């Protein structure tokens, strides 16, 4: 009879039914006749093939980049099965197959391999003993903080006043990062729907300065910056050309007046009424010497 059981149990044990794992245990064998009793204890072990369940080996795992790369799967079986896990499509000896250890191997004095993004994928875990094997697939996802931010200014970071430009911010990360900006204070800024871009219309001097984009998720953050310059050289040149034009016009007016005055004096083409009492009239009475002779410029008066 099984220890702790009944005689009926012993009878069932001698039957022709299939052995189950519940049959394992300690049994007492008793021999009796009219001369006495003899007993003996017997331990029965039931062996069986491996099995892998969800509780001991979840089919989905979430790893964090930089942590120990360990993939543990608990399997049942007797004798205790040996469990190995390898990435699907790669053999354990394949150079592209990232090394993975089981938790039992972490006692190795050498540092265990660290999780990288290449570890993401599907792994096949196999439990094996003398009576068979069991297989279970495990999907591994790797999370990581935002990678270095890439920040682009289109068409360039040197902007002409009055034009439109945009900035695009990008960063990889799992889970997907969110984006935030530190911008020069200006009213002509518009953020994109996902905060990954900024558009500036009709750029002014208020749009000069440092633009910083920060990408964040639950594992960290990363930032990138760029300096935008608003070029106003064309405006300065336009003002300079305007000033030069004004000076040129004034110079031409003075030169023209002098020319007309001297020419009119020589030709006597003055209107007396207009020239009377002016500096121009004075030239009508000017005398000068030419080759030793005295010349007098005069005008002919006509009756109105």
TrEMBL record:
Molecular function per GO: integrin binding
Lineage: Eukaryota, Metazoa, Chordata, Craniata, Vertebrata
Keyword Transmembrane helix: yes
Chain segments annotated as coiled-coil in the UniProt record: none
Signal peptide: none
Superkingdom of source: Eukaryota
InterPro entries (alphabetical): ICAM_VCAM, Ig-like_dom, Ig-like_dom_sf, Ig-like_fold, Ig_sub, Ig_sub2
Transmembrane segments: 234-260
Region feature (Disordered): 88-113
Protein name per the record: ICAM5 protein
UniProt keyword terms in alphabetical order: Membrane, Transmembrane, Transmembrane helix
GO biological process terms held by the UniProt record: cell adhesion
GO cellular component terms attached to this protein's record: plasma membrane
UniProt cross-references to CDD domains, sorted A to Z: Ig
Domain Ig-like: 50-141, 148-231
Keyword presence, Transmembrane: yes
């Amino acid at each position: 009879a099984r220890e702790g059981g009944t005689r009926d149990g012993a009878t069932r044990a001698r039957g022709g039914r299939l052995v189950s794992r519940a049959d394992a245990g300690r049994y007492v064998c008793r021999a009796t006749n009219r001369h006495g009793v003899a007993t003996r204890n017997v331990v029965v072990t039931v062996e069986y093939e491996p099995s892998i369940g969800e509780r001991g080996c979840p089919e989905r795992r979430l790893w964090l980049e930089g942590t120990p790369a360990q993939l543990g799967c608990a399997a049942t079986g007797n004798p205790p099965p040996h469990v190995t896990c390898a990435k699907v499509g790669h053999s354990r000896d394949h150079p592209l197959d990232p090394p993975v250890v089981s938790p039992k191997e972490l006692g190795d004095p050498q540092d265990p391999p660290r999780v990288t993004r290449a570890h993401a994928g599907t792994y096949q875990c196999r439990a094996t003993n003398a009576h068979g094997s069991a297989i279970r697939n495990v999907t591994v996802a790797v999370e990581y903080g935002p990678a270095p931010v890439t920040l682009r200014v289109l068409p360039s970071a040197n902007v002409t006043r009055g034009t439109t430009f945009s900035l695009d911010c990008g960063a990889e990360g799992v889970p997907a990062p969110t984006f935030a900006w530190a911008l020069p204070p200006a009213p002509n800024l518009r953020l994109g729907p996902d905060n990954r871009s900024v558009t500036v219309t009709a750029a002014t001097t208020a749009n000069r300065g440092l633009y910083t984009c920060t990408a964040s998720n639950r594992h960290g953050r990363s930032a990138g910056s760029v300096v935008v310059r608003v070029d106003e050289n064309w405006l300065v040149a336009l003002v300079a050309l305007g000033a030069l034009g004004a000076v040129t016009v004034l110079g031409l007016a003075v030169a023209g007046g002098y020319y007309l005055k001297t020419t009119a004096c020589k030709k006597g083409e003055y209107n007396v009424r207009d020239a009377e009492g002016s500096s121009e009239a004075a030239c009508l009475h000017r005398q000068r010497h030419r080759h030793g002779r005295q010349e007098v410029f005069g005008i002919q008066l006509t009756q109105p």
